[in-house]
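Worked example

This section walks through a single chain of length 237. The input is the sequence exactly as stored; nothing has been trimmed or padded.
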Amino acid sequence: MSKFLSTCFSILFISHIALAQNFEIGLTVGALTYNGDIDIVAKNVGSATNAAFGLVGKYRLSNSLLVRGQILRGKLSGSEKTHPTAWRQERGLSFTSPLTEISGLLEWEFLSRGNFTAYAFGGASLSFFNPKTDFNMPNKYIDDVNPDANVNYRKFTATVPVGMGLKYSLPHNFFISAEMGARFAFSDYLDGISQVGNPNRKDTYIYTGLAITKAFGGGKSGANRAFKQGDANCPKF
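Given that input, the structure is written out below as tokens.
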């Protein structure tokens, strides 16, 4: 029996190693767009959009599912000084904040046509931030005692990323992807503002980016081979 068990475990171990070779690594570059207590519309969206970049790693679980780890680094910002509404310009709130996001995502490839693959993703992230907020004081729209100026809030928050993308397969197991995804934060202080803004709504931001990745172990075809190997029957006893 021990020989049978050893044989079975050996087959499973070899299959696992073969499967583990089916991963992708690469780089992503794009833009972060803030949406929060500082009102952002088309005219002042430039004040809320900043460059970002990051690292991407993917592990293929099946023919259509991948798990993705990702680190993004960029900046969030926003300003009412270019807002089209006069009272928003007069209030003039603005901020800037560095942002680092660490994500664990599940990616579902739901449609493939030729070299193109459409996918959706979702998961969980931890976002680190440190806003520098200009309350434009004195400000007739804010009381003399600013309730947000001395709040001791955490400089990190959990976020929920969801979005969609399109991937194109290149020669030599390279892929280029374009995607857009919203990040729903559990904090209202990404911009350093809550009580003088809208305390009933949490902040969000969007990442729009391009990624280029390299698949190892044969990419999608390699994953198929690995899973076929994993179907090997263990000896029965």
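What to look for: Residues 2-20 form the longest helix (19 residues).
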